[in-house]
Structure formats: structure tokens, C-alpha cells
């Protein structure tokens, strides 16, 4: 029986974690014996892991402390292949295989634009990971990035040969998204009787998402129409964003941050427009999820992913990063355009169906499309 392992820090509420849960569930349903190996067994996405998947808790807390527990796991379980995600976990995965002296094929995946992440690393342990990347990544058996631009960026950053990083778009369970989108939504702003359009953003409250630009753009939008703004997600910038909203004159009936939401698709299906205001991404999953729900989208033209997803603006409006006025104008334009005159974004979302990604990852892992678990 072939065992396949996936190594992650935890299952806290980020895009990469959601992607990996989709993958592990997909691998299990393809007949593989799958271990989801976590440095720390925590995070809201734990409840989404299929019962067919065994969750292994290394009880390490921080990822760097998971190195020797992962070595012991590899020596004991000897999976035929292991996939990891997020750069510090990738470094640990490659080093653990080396120290364990096992034949496990290790494939690492990068879910952001690494050169920008490295520039903004502030603490020494984060900076040290990026120093190790060029040496460690080339010792992996396969390297995956989630967009073409992020793949090229990784090759330049890590001095890897051109074409050595494979692009695999993130998987999306479109059937499940449609089912969850039809569920009731608890927020009062999204009930059928409400007439004020709701602008929705989803993602961690962190620097890359650039929510200050979105808040300033929303303040301009309100001079044209009486909309509302919801940002779903948690993060260290919550207090800063709340203070900015107050300074812009946005009250509780205009702007709210409900926190992490287990089913964002019910929100997306009822929003008037989804907005991605990011300064950088890898492949923004929330943008694709919004399109899968049929929600019109506006996005910054940030590295990496939005331009690829929207095919140069065919499926939604692209604006310059950090341009408050352009973002506000694009939002107003979408809200003032009848829905039937906007592109049916569900057609483009179909290109990101999970089976394509599962096939591609299994091939990169050196495994057939179906296992014999």
C-alpha cells in the first residue's frame, strides 16, 4: 500500500492551507493512503479534513522544531512521496528527508511571490529561511509554484535553472463550493430584504492584502453610492484597520470585520462584488472562489496571479497596486453595471477544477492518477 504524506505547519486559516486540505482529500479519494503531517495540530481547517486522511501531530509548535520529529516520522512510516507547502516548511521537509536517509520523493510548493516575501522578512529566523532557500530547494525532487509569474520569480530568487519550477494552478472543489454557497448566511447585511450592495474582501489582515487601500477606496465609493464593506479574516492588523476606518468616518453600519468565517462561499454568493486589493500574492484563491460563486470581481494587478486568472482583464477589472482612486472607480463601475452585462465568471472558474491539479501533483510526485489504498 503506497503511503503519501503532506507536511504543513498547521491548518490555520490561510489560502495555502485551504489548498492543501483540498489536495489531501482529493488524494485520499483517488485511493491513496494519505497522512497529513502537521508541526502542530491546530487551525479551523482541521474540520474540513476528510476522515479517510490520517492526521499526524508532531507536537512541535514552531516548524523549525518539527525537523527531528519529521525525521523520525519518515524513518518509521517511509512514505513513497511527501508534498510540503510554505517556504519554512519546505526547507524542513527537504532537510528531514536528507537526515532520515530514506528514499521518499519530496516535492515542495511555493504559494506566494518569494522575492517580495523575502524583502519584507523582519525577524532573523524568517530571514535565515530565505538564505537557505537557494541551497535547499535545488535538493528537492520537484518544485511547484501556483502561477507562471511566481514560478519565474522563484527561479530567479533561488538561482534555479529556467523551467525547473513547474506551474500547477491551485485546486478548487467547485461542486462543494456551489453547495456551500447555497447555505444560509448569518450576516444581516446579506439578507434578501437588504438593498445596500455589499463589497466583500477575504483574507488575513496582514500587509500583503493592503486593506488600507481598500478602506480608502471604499470611502470614495460611498460618495457615489450607499454600499457596505465586509472583510472576512483575522490577523495582526485588525486594530490598525479599525482605527483607519474610524478616521475615514466609516461606522459600524458601513464597515465590519466579522473575523474568520468557516463558510465564506455563502457570503460570496450574496455579495455585489468581490475585491482583491493585494500588493502581492501567489495565486489568490479567494479571487477564484468568488468567480466560482458567480460574483463579479475587481483586483489589483499585483504579482502574482490576478492577471493570469482574469486573462488580462477579460473576466474582471484590473487596477494598479495601491491606486485608491482607480480601485474606487472600478468598484463603482461594477456596481453600476447590470449583472447580466458582466462576464459570467463561473466559466473561467471551471478551468481551476480540482481534478486537473490533483492529476498534475500526483504526476510530479511520481505517482499514478489512482492509488490502491
TrEMBL record:
Family matches, as CDD domains: GT4_GT28_WabH-like
Species per Swiss-Prot/TrEMBL record: Meiothermus taiwanensis
Protein's name according to its UniProt entry: N-acetylgalactosamine-N, N'-diacetylbacillosaminyl-diphospho-undecaprenol 4-alpha-N-acetylgalactosaminyltransferase
Glycosyltransferase subfamily 4-like N-terminal domain span: 14-176
InterPro entries named among the record's database cross-references: Glyco_trans_4-like_N
Keyword Cytoplasm: no
Pfam entry (one): Glyco_transf_4
EC supergroup of this enzyme: transferase
Alphabetized UniProt keyword annotations: Glycosyltransferase, Transferase
EC number: 2.4.1.291
GO molecular function, one term: glycosyltransferase activity
Amino acid at each position: 500500500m503506497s503511503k503519501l504524506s503532506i507536511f504543513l505547519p498547521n491548518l490555520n486559516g490561510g489560502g495555502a492551507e485551504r489548498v492543501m486540505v483540498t489536495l489531501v482529500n482529493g488524494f485520499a479519494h483517488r485511493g491513496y493512503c494519505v497522512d497529513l503531517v502537521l508541526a502542530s495540530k491546530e487551525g479551523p481547517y482541521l474540520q474540513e479534513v476528510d476522515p479517510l486522511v490520517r492526521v499526524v501531530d508532531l507536537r512541535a509548535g514552531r516548524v523549525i522544531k518539527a525537523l527531528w520529529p519529521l525525521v523520525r516520522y519518515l524513518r518509521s512510516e517511509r512514505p513513497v512521496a511527501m508534498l510540503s507547502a510554505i517556504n519554512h516548511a519546505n526547507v524542513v521537509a527537504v532537510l528531514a528527508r536528507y537526515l532520515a536517509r530514506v528514499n521518499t520523493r519530496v516535492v515542495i510548493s511555493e504559494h506566494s511571490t518569494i522575492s517580495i516575501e523575502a524583502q519584507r522578512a523582519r525577524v532573523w529566523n524568517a530571514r535565515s529561511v530565505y538564505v537557505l532557500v537557494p541551497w535547499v530547494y535545488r535538493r528537492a525532487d520537484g518544485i511547484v509554484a501556483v502561477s507562471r509569474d511566481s514560478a519565474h520569480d522563484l527561479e530567479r530568487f533561488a538561482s534555479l535553472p529556467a523551467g525547473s519550477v513547474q506551474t500547477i494552478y491551485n485546486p478548487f472543489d467547485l461542486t462543494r463550493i456551489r453547495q456551500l454557497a447555497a447555505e444560509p448566511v448569518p450576516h444581516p447585511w446579506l439578507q434578501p430584504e437588504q438593498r445596500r450592495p455589499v463589497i466583500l474582501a477575504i483574507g488575513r489582515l496582514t500587509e500583503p492584502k493592503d486593506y488600507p487601500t481598500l478602506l480608502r477606496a471604499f470611502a470614495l465609493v460611498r460618495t457615489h453610492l450607499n454600499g457596505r464593506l465586509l472583510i472576512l479574516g483575522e490577523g495582526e492588523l485588525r486594530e490598525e484597520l479599525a482605527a483607519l476606518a474610524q478616521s475615514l468616518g466609516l461606522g459600524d453600519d458601513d464597515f465590519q470585520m466579522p473575523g474568520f468565517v468557516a463558510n465564506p462561499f455563502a457570503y460570496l454568493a450574496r455579495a455585489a462584488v468581490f475585491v482583491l486589493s493585494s500588493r502581492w500574492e501567489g495565486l489568490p484563491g479567494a479571487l477564484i472562489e468568488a468567480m466560482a460563486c458567480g460574483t463579479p470581481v475587481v483586483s489589483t494587478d499585483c504579482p502574482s496571479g490576478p492577471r493570469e486568472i482574469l486573462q488580462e482583464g477579460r473576466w474582471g477589472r484590473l487596477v494598479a497596486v495601491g491606486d485608491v482612486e482607480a480601485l474606487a472607480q472600478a468598484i463603482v463601475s461594477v456596481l453600476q453595471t447590470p449583472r447580466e452585462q458582466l462576464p459570467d465568471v463561473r466559466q473561467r472558474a471551471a478551468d481551476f477544477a480540482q481534478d486537473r491539479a490533483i492529476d498534475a501533483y500526483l504526476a510530479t510526485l511520481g505517482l499514478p492518477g489512482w492509488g490502491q489504498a
